[in-house]
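Contributing new complexes? Match this layout with magnesium ion.
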Amino acid sequence: MKEIVLAKYGEIALKGLNKSRFESLLVKNLKRRLGDLGQFRYTRAQSIIYIEPLDDGIDMNDVVARVSKTFGIASICRSAELPKNFEGIVAEGIPYLDEQLSFAKTFKVTARRSDKKFPMKSPEICMELGYEILRRYPHLTVDVKNPDVEVIIEIRETNAYIHAGTIAGAGGMPVGSSGQAMLLLSGGIDSPVAGYMMAKRGIHISAIHYVSPPYTSDRARMKVERLCSKISAYCGDIRFFCVPFTEIQEKIKDECPEELFTIIMRRIMMEIAQRISVQNNCNALILGESVGQVASQTMEAIVCTDAVAKMPVFRPVIGMDKSEIVEIARKIDTFDISIEPYEDCCTVFTPKHPKTSPVLSEVEEAQSRFDFEPLIAEAVNNTEMRIFKTEFQSC
Ligand code: ATP
Ligand code: MG
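Output block (do not edit by hand):
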């Protein structure tokens, strides 16, 4: 008996004429993610991708865990592939679900017959299979409304498949279907979540991080790199850009009014991020800001930072409470890393009383008192890039 994974699409199914482009991308993403586990055959039919292992000994738990982190897939069924005759379904299908049936008290059978040539109709399959299950597991009773186990039998073109329920997929759109954007990734809780959320909408993200040694340590940088690896399980391969930011921060401290330090720093971060974005085909910036959370995230502060942006700036967590962001951070397993107490460059030289309602013209005037351009150009030139390949440490 062979096990197979049925990955069912979500939104792609609604895509009309473009559907096949999205499907091909999804299959490509799956191949990339499962490649090191062994050989698989991928078959597309009726908004489902059948992922069939071709090698012995492939760990199907691992396959399911990886598929469940692949954007574009709404649900997953881990199934037994069965011969397309009723005797075969009974002989191989019922033992396959032995564990679930042994522990349940109630069950029901649902049959889906997409091959209309199969000699039994769906209600008949349900009745006969239910009867055979009851014969083998006399402790069970049928409950069609709220069963402990729903045995689903699908009769398809070449085979029948049996499984006991559906696992939720990651949802969203296949990564790469919505272009590329640059995530400003700090070591905090919010920005990894922001990157995850945009990748879920099909954006292939790159990440940029600013470091200020010796004020920020190697461990702080390594923490961000670990966050990058973590989110790669969902986001795919990530180009990681690390910007040396010390000199710029020191100059802002020396040359600009203290209360505007943070806002000017953010404006320069945006400027650098968009230059590196243009060089690397990223067409938008992604930030982990939530309105009102801290002084630099008031409406007025956002107006001042966005004034330097020449490309769209996405802030997917802008309207979320911290607790809602934390919930996602826990789900994607970044929370424990994010709360490690290493300093970020944003906490270097933080003013005692940052201006919460900065006025754009005043900020521009303060920033123009010093020519930051050579330092910005130098920081861009000295930015290092490395690639984080998709990793599945937590599977
Ligand atoms: P986070 O939890 O993402 O750090 P935060 O609530 O701590 O966010 P800030 O420190 O004000 O907020 O940062 C706001 C946003 O600016 C971050 O979400 C991130 O997108 C970006 N950012 C901050 N520091 C850095 C950094 N050192 N490198 C790259 N981006 C940064
Ligand atoms: Mg932060």
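Reviewers usually confirm one structural detail per submission. For this one: The chain has 14 helices and 15 strands.
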